[in-house]
Write a structure and sequence with these properties.
By secondary structure, this protein is mainly beta. It is built from two helices and 15 strands. It is 12% helix and 37% strand. The strands form three sheets. A nine-stranded antiparallel β-sheet has the order 1-2-3-4-13-10-15-8-5, covered by helices on one side.
Length: 222
């Protein structure tokens, strides 16, 4: 991977993955954002597999510990699913219906293997659906047992304004638009960076017939 200094917050790279050739990459406060990493055919396949996940484990709106429903609807695949209610944030081994989570599809595991080749197999694929007007406040992904392994995030559908902050609350943040097919990797010093989605721009992608955005985040839990 080669890096080019484009000024503060604009470090860019060309990442090579096996024989796949270079993938344009932006480094935003330590988060590596691989632009257009998934081609249209791969995006379509992943969306089909996400629909199968949602059929087996329907989307739901979790509660925050303060009793407020999240605007994002979510589900999971893998050994564990991320969950939230008045008891707090945590991983659980079953959908709220009581059914086990479905397996992570191969099309999604292939993305993990490509962008986190040295990491163990992910134990959770969190599926977030952002409708128009949905956002996700700044937060850390810190419910995992070990922070040595990255979080790999896949964007599908409409553009989303992605904000990245620091590893502690407060201070300067920077933002960029994520597009369908982009893959963001939060690892190393940026593994615990605060991040969130300020808004989704409707009509910027035709991947999802009813619009909106799907975000997949792959994590090693234990």
């Amino acid at each position: 991977m080669t890096l080019q200094d484009k000024g503060p917050g604009k470090l860019e790279c060309d990442a090579h993955f096996g024989g796949l050739g270079p993938v344009p990459c932006q480094v935003l406060r330590g988060v590596h954002i691989h632009r257009h990493a998934l081609d249209p055919a791969t995006q379509t396949q992943v969306v089909e597999d996400v629909r199968a996940i949602a059929q087996a484990a329907p989307l739901y709106s979790p509660l925050t510990p303060w009793g407020k429903p999240m605007s994002v609807r979510m589900t999971s695949a893998g050994q564990f699913g991320w969950y939230s209610d008045r008891r707090g944030y945590r991983y659980v081994d079953r959908h709220p219906s009581g059914s086990p989570w479905p397996a992570i599809p191969l099309s999604i595991l292939n993305v993990w293997t490509r962008f986190a080749p040295d990491a163990p197999v992910p134990e959770c694929c969190l599926v977030n659906y952002y409708a128009e007007g949905t956002r996700m406040g700044l937060h850390q992904d810190k419910d995992e047992a070990c922070f040595d392994w990255p979080v790999v995030s896949i964007s599908l559908g409409d553009d989303a304004l992605f904000r990245v902050g620091n590893v502690t609350k407060g201070g300067k943040t920077e933002s960029t638009w994520l597009q369908s097919g982009d893959v963001a990797v939060l690892g190393g010093d940026a593994r615990l960076a605060y991040h969130g989605v300020d808004r989704v721009k409707p009509g910027t992608s035709d991947l999802l017939p009813k619009g909106g955005r799907i975000n997949l985040t792959l994590r090693v839990v234990t």
